[in-house]
Design goal:
- The chain is an alpha/beta fold.
- Helix content is 24%, strand content 26%.
- Keywords: Hydrolase, Multifunctional enzyme, NADP, Oxidoreductase, Riboflavin biosynthesis.
- Pathway: Cofactor biosynthesis; riboflavin biosynthesis; 5-amino-6-(D-ribitylamino)uracil from GTP: step 3/4; Cofactor biosynthesis; riboflavin biosynthesis; 5-amino-6-(D-ribitylamino)uracil from GTP: step 2/4.
- It holds the Pfam family dCMP_cyt_deam_1.
Length: 316
Amino acid sequence: MAMALALSERGRGRTGANPNVGCVIVKQGVIIGRGWTQPGGRPHAEEMALAQAGASAKGADIYVTMEPCAHESARGPTCSNAIIDARPKRVIVATLDADERTRRRGIDRLGDAGIPVSVGIREPEARRAMAGFLSRVEKARPFVTLKLALSLDGCIAMADGSSQWITGDRARAHAHLERARSDAILVGAGTAKADRPTLDVRTDGLTDRSPQPVILGSDPEMPAHWLQISEPAAIADLADINWLLVEGGAQTAASFLQAGMVDRLLLYRAPIIIGGGLSGIGDIGLEKLAAAHGQWRRTDLRPLGQDVLEIYERAA
């Protein structure tokens, strides 16, 4: 299942409205099929893995990070039916599908066909790996990551607005990897007007994975392919966007935090002190300090050259 979860990450930010599922097929201790949801959502992970395994899938163990789909689609075969046709020994599922068209119907269909099914293997990791799709189904909006590059004293720029560069090469390279793992990337109108950012991915081998640029606010001078929304809540209307990366600026960050629409924080901290610079986050309407506690839990801490990356997820 750990391998299936790792494979699911390959599809993150590229599967449209579909979940980024991973699948591994094992027979007599040998991996005979691997798959992950392909760009645009098809083929599904199970379909790809079964195609690799071929007739050898009969009597094998199938590990999949989300319940195989059970609803009919004009875009491709139903995975639960394809698995039944393959006649595996058993199917191991990390988490149930959040889509009511499939939830429990996939595993019930497999069980009715006489195929043993186990559910809940490494479920927390699976929900984290496919959090974009789950957020879209359960919260009716994309999963939102807020990214900030900060000095030690919490500044994102000098007082005159200059910010290139606060962090070093390795931190910026990691930030571009995060862009490549996102469906869309958003900045505020002020940042767009001041910096005219391209918001693309400039890492070798990943340049084709640049996310859809979005602006919070209005700017008629932005290129036609940029999407423009009026408020954080409008991200619910962004079609086929499961993973949204918010990059700037301070008021945009504050607006998403105040709306309770940030699920994950990426804080890149550089070992510099600016003093009198521009704060990374604007006023979020906090009235009591006690209300700030217990909102976030740190899930990762890693050095990136001279900088440090802290990753936090919402605690509740």
